[in-house]
Design goal:
The chain is α/β, with parallel strands linked by helices and about 250 residues long. The chain contains nine helices and eight strands. The protein has two domains: about 5-130, Rossmann fold; about 155-245, no CATH class. Helices cover about 45% and strands about 15% of the residues. It has a five-stranded parallel sheet with strand order 2-1-3-4-5. Strands 6-7-8 form a three-stranded mixed sheet.
């Protein structure tokens, strides 16, 4: 199992050592960097789950600068950040940073490390649930676009890809051609075994869509179906098609 990483920045060693004890070492790796610069040069960890930042850092006037830099990193953008204040809470700093959306919590170092760990666990549990949901959603999406028996992409996937391509065509101003399945490949392929030949032929409907055409996936399929049936009804094993604007 790949360990998740909890990072501390500028946390006094006594607090860091106690805090580390509250996280299962088989699951979490706890790293404490002495300065903001050292953290920024070590951000390539595979899975950073949470960041503690002490609000008194040796190389920065305020920790808000570090939070801004961290939120600009794609792999840190949604990672929970907890500020640990030196001594009593700086209420002005706390309100400013919470309102900015740069941090998720602001706590005092005068509390126990057990309290700090409890704050962290709230965010770690939420992140774990979000990760689980993402995995389930990815699985459901994969099931919705593949055939259960053959594991090949289905019609829904084709519609999604066509919609994406139509949007690209309008954005980047280039034409594209759509065709259903490939005549030469199918005609030459033996679907049987060894000397027991089993051959098939296919008919193809083809359309070329120009970015000037006002089209969508539904109208594209209707026009494409017309060309497919034209190919079938006029001899099979052939392609029928042309420009979308002339055929729909």
């Amino acid at each position: 199992m790949i360990k998740k990483t909890i990072i501390g920045v500028g946390i006094p060693q006594s607090i860091s050592d106690e805090l580390k004890l509250h996280f299962t070492p088989e699951i979490f790796e706890f790293l404490n960097f002495p300065s903001a610069q050292e953290l920024l040069t070590n951000l390539k960890k595979p899975k950073i789950s949470l960041i503690f930042i002490y609000n008194v850092l040796p190389d920065l006037k305020n920790c808000q600068e570090l939070c801004i830099a961290l939120r600009a990193e794609p792999n840190i953008e949604t990672v929970p950040i907890i500020i640990i204040s030196h001594g009593k809470e700086n209420k002005e700093e706390k309100i400013t940073m919470l309102r900015s959306g740069l941090i998720d919590s602001y706590v005092s170092s005068l509390g126990t490390t057990e309290e700090l760990a409890a704050y962290a666990n709230v965010f770690l549990q939420r992140s774990a649930l979000e990760e689980e949901l993402e995995i389930k959603n990815a699985l459901l999406n994969n099931l919705s676009i593949t055939d259960e028996l053959t594991k090949l992409f289905n019609r829904r996937y084709l519609i999604q890809r066509l919609d994406e391509e139509l949007n690209k065509e309008k954005r980047y101003n280039y034409p594209h051609t759509v065709l259903l399945r490939l005549i030469k490949k199918v005609e030459e392929y033996n679907f049987g075994f060894h000397e027991n030949l089993l051959k098939f032929t296919i008919s193809i409907g083809l359309l070329t869509v120009d970015n000037k055409d006002d089209t969508n996936v539904d109208s594209l399929f209707r026009a494409l179906d017309k060309q497919l049936y034209e190919a079938k009804n006029s001899g099979r094993n052939k392609i029928c098609g042309g420009l979308y604007k002339n055929l729909h």
